[in-house]
Predict the structure of Ribosomal RNA small subunit methyltransferase A.
Amino acid sequence: MGNKHKPKLGQNFLIDDRARHAIADALGDLSTRTVVEIGPGHGAITEILATRAKKLILIELDRALAAELRFRFRENPAVEILEGDVLEVDLAPLGQDLDVIGNLPYYITSDILLKLFAASRTGLIRRAVLMMQREVADRVSAAPGIKDYGLLSATAQMHARVDHLFTLPPEAFNPPPDVFSTVIRLEFAPRFAELGVEPAPFDAFLRQIYAQKRKTLRNNLRTAGHTPAAIDAAWPAGLPPEIRAEALSLEDTAALYCNLV
Ligand SMILES: C[S@@+](CC[C@H](N)C(=O)[O-])C[C@H]1O[C@@H](n2cnc3c(N)ncnc32)[C@H](O)[C@@H]1O
């Protein structure tokens, strides 16, 4: 494994042997599964998955790395390599009920998560095991009322159950990044139908109520154009008037939304 890397592409390669096995193990039995790996790089995790998955699809943007992977797995018919930007790849033709795995390129973590959430709404993906910057993982998994809870937490938890698996120090990578990294598992189970809300307008509502972090929920609703009378009429019983969106459960958020529209 050479030292050549492109920092712009988030290339911090995993060199901790136990960690790469733990990440692959976190997807469970793969013998009947189609797995999509985002950013396989030099293949630290890929090498393990390639002997386990029924089908393994690799999405790698770096041309030299994609060529290296094509050569390395040329005799394994279960492995398919898509050279390109994961944000541009249409996941629909890759199958249904996919498993996704990846030590993500951190510069596009949020965009990748949003893409996976959207894909989960149509049953395209079942589960994902993802490594990301620790602070982002903390936001994805935070409970309401906790400092890290916000739009990303609410959006993630509308789509999936989130498990924090483990955190790695910079030395687990070559070159070491400036941050700690956390592996999480997402079990996709979108909650829109259960909570009685439509996905796209509810997404827009979440963006409104988290628009300004320092404002109360009521003030964010006012800024979004709701009248004080409409807000009063929709306010769920027992909710403190000065509450911030960050302290609101998804159930209360959905109740408020349903009362307002
Ligand atoms: C953090 S490295 C992980 C590499 C390898 N999986 C590992 O764990 O050692 C991120 C990988 O994502 C690739 N990458 C960066 N941007 C990408 C994009 N937009 N689409 C697909 N892959 C990308 C990088 O080239 C790199 O191989």
Summary: Residues 109-120 form the longest helix (12 residues). The chain has a mean pLDDT of 96. Residues 115 and 216 are 29 Å apart (CA to CA).
